[in-house]
Amino acid sequence: MPSDVFIMGISFLFIFMGAGALQQFLITILKRTADWPLLGYTTTSILAMVYFSFMCWRIFIGITLRRLGFYLSILVGGMTYLCFTLTVLFSRDYILLLTAAAVWGWGACSMWIAASTQVFLAAKRTKYGLCTGILYGFALSGYTVGVFLLGEIQRYFGDQAVVSAAALFTSLGVAVLFFLPRRRSTFAALKLGRIWQMARSPSFLAAGFFLFTAAISYAILLGVYAGFIDKAIGTGSIGRITVFFYLARVVASFLGGPISDRLGRGVVLRAGFLLAAFGFIATVLVAGRFSQGAAFQGSHYITLILSSLFLGLQVGVIPVATTAFVGDALAQEQRHLGLGAIFFWRDLAMVITLLGGEALVVHFSFETTILLFAIIFIGCAIVAPRVKVSSPRG
């Protein structure tokens, strides 16, 4: 394994154990500790701003990547995770938090696209899927451990201790990035026409759509899914159920890369969407029983755990397969443009689902909303194997 992948992996482990895992608790913490008007929308808008900024910078990140290079793009990007966490720790000023969220969105975009591109530069072509999976696996291992630890810290020590621990973990991850090897930057200049050409090619549109739908699962987990668990079982169970989502993402990231190298991206994508559909259908069955007044039983608890596992497998495997797809289709100096062209749709899905999830549940009920997404995922599973890897012309 290249040293670049190992160092970035260890760093991402701690960063996502801290700031990354904090996302699962952020909206709940802000609702309890902030005194803002329209509290539900304003607290959700903080997290939505992260992904809105991330989405916008997907297109224009080449400007800062060319100026900063690999090393600083990753290091400074990692620092924004820490800055946001410290802002949450010390302030409840809405504008300041919104600004910190916007800066974090740039940093996340800079760090992820530069890191993914550096993986392609350091690894052999036949190992793109494996090395990408390892990088995602380290990051998602941090998510998993972080959600569990922060959940237990919240249970016994309160919200402020959660944010303090997240800041500590994130600072360790940033410190590791100082040891990252410096590599020569080979980023193509920003060409909106080239990005648009990539974005509207059939294969890239399909890959972007898969990321869009997969991100819906994650946004639902952070929002309405956690709200249902809170209503049906209690706040103390949110972390202990959702941790299985993050655990499954780790497994999917480590295994999804080499499996997609061997069996093809389409097969892996189909399996991920089918599992997510089954997870949503299982959740609908439990929610239906609960809405009819049935007492929450151990079998329901197990069903929600399995549902979290299935959703995690989907959300873990699809970014690995689609990132490797970009490595297959494009030359090294254009891969950051390709990543921006397809991952733009993931961030758009996060913004829409975070802001609109509660409204959908209010108007259509939790069960109907989740069942709708299950049907969409079944459709994606049918289409996925038909996607062919091809390089856009130009």
Summarize the structure.
By secondary structure, the protein is mainly α.
Rounded Rg: 20 Å
Nearest-integer average pLDDT: 81
Helical content stands at: over 70%
Share of residues in strands: under 5%
CATH topology of the largest domain: Growth Hormone, Chain: A
CATH class of the largest domain: Mainly Alpha
CATH superfamily of the largest domain: MFS general substrate transporter like domains
- Number of individual domains: 2
CATH architecture level-2 label of the largest domain: Up-down Bundle
Low-confidence stretches: 389-394
DSSP, total strands: 0
The ordered string of helix (H) and strand (E) elements is HHHHHHHHHHHH
Structural classification: mainly alpha
What does this structure look like?
It is a single chain. This protein folds into 2 domains: 1-182, Growth Hormone, Chain: A; 191-394, Growth Hormone, Chain: A (Up-down Bundle). The chain starts with a helix and ends in an 11-residue tail after the last helix. It has 394 residues and is mainly alpha-helical. The chain contains 12 helices and no strands. The protein has helices at residues 3-33, 39-90, 94-122, 128-157, 159-177, 192-199, 202-232, 238-263, 265-291, 298-329, 335-364, 366-383.
